[in-house]
Design goal:
Elements (H helix, E strand, L loop, with lengths): L2 H14 L4 H8 L3 H13 L4 E4 L5 E4 L12 H6 L6 H6 L3 H14 L2 H12 L18 H10 L1 E8 L6 E14 L2 E7 L5 E5 L3 E10 L8 H16 L2 E7 L1 H6 L6 H10 L1 E2 L6 E7 L2 H9 L5 E5 L1 H17 L4
Antiparallel strand pairs: 1-2, 3-4, 3-7, 4-5, 5-6, 8-10, 8-11, 9-10
Helix pairs in contact: 1-3, 1-7, 2-3, 12-13
Length: 326
């Protein structure tokens, strides 16, 4: 039973008035049977929900009943979205607001729902950063939150990968995205081109006096999906044929990106009777692929292209000499 779904049901009845069980089920994306069960749980929790039978009947709250979600500041209302994400909320400078908003929300709930919400919170925890790396430092993040919400341009000094590495930009922030523990700013530059900036690479940032309107119809989620598709298309510019031992295939997900794992799964064919397989994988560059595949040690062999195979041989040769084997 989802406490969040019961709260959604309560707010749905409060905002819509009388609703049929079918209407509730359609709105919440559950079965009609589940909708009946949720309505019964809401009643058992002390919420005055009553049913009116017959054609045109349905479920509704007792006249005058309202939830007591009051007393929240603007910052606390913003922070509600991050109530289950304490780490990202702290990054955004909203840790105190999240705590206050959660307490006020819980205090406004009937006893049954409050206990259900507490049980749910006790068994879920989000830790966004990936393994084997320290969380990135993003001291400019709260400033970007302010800029996004107030529609103010920001002057930044940004460190990028290509020369010149440090550049100055005036950006109009449209939104922030958290991807695998890394924060990204989606913003338009002075030429109106929308681009993505890694927040940890921002060296300095100052709010400007310039105000701007976010373009009508801009969808942050749709932009990010399109950006990821384009990134993958630009990222992988070649292919390689490799052979993997059974152990190498088991180790693959811990050492290469998911796209490479999927490529192996879809193209693998057996070579011999010892469990080795041959597959075609996407590659970014010879240098990058060499470093990535060397993590698998003796459990991988590069068949093609020749330059990648030669790079593997050269690297292994350097290692051998470093350890006094030649």
């Amino acid at each position: 039973m989802s406490a969040g779904r019961l709260l959604s049901l309560l707010l749905l009845l409060q905002s819509r008035g009388r609703m049929s069980a079918r209407g509730v089920a359609d709105e919440l994306g559950v079965s009609v049977r589940t909708a009946y069960r949720d309505l019964a749980r809401l009643q058992a929790a002390g919420v005055p929900v009553y049913a009116e039978p017959g054609r045109g009947g349905g479920y509704q709250l007792l006249d005058g009943y309202r939830t007591r979600l009051t007393g929240m500041s603007e910052g606390e209302a913003r922070a509600l979205f991050f109530a289950g994400l304490p780490g990202p909320a702290a990054d955004l400078g909203l840790a105190a607001e999240v705590t206050a908003a959660r307490l006020k929300l819980l205090a406004a709930l009937p006893t049954g729902l409050r206990e259900e919400a507490a049980r749910t919170a006790a068994v879920f925890h989000l830790d966004a950063p990936g393994w084997y790396r320290e969380p990135e430092q993003t001291p400019q993040l709260p400033l970007f939150v302010d800029a996004v919400l107030t529609g103010r341009a920001v002057d930044v000094r940004y460190r990028r990968w290509r020369a010149p590495q440090e550049v100055n930009r005036r950006l109009r922030p449209y939104g922030l995205v958290l991807k695998s523990g890394t924060w990204y700013l989606v913003a338009a530059a002075t030429d109106s081109r929308i681009a993505t900036y890694r927040v940890a690479q921002v060296l300095d940032a100052v709010l400007s006096d310039e105000r701007f309107d976010r373009p009508q119809g801009f969808d942050l989620g749709a932009y990010w999906t399109s950006y990821l598709d384009d990134f993958q298309a630009r990222r992988y510019t070649g292919t390689a044929t490799i052979r993997l031992s059974p152990q190498g295939r088991r180790r693959l997900p811990d050492n290469v990106p998911p796209e490479v794992v999927r490529a192996v799964d879809s193209t693998a064919t057996a070579v011999g009777d010892d469990g080795w397989v041959e597959a075609v994988i996407p590659t970014e560059s010879t240098y990058h692929a060499c470093g990535e595949l060397l993590r698998l040690g003796v459990d991988v062999e590069v068949v093609a292209p020749a330059e990648l195979r030669q790079a593997m041989v050269a690297t292994v040769g350097v290692l051998a000499r470093a350890y006094g084997l030649h």
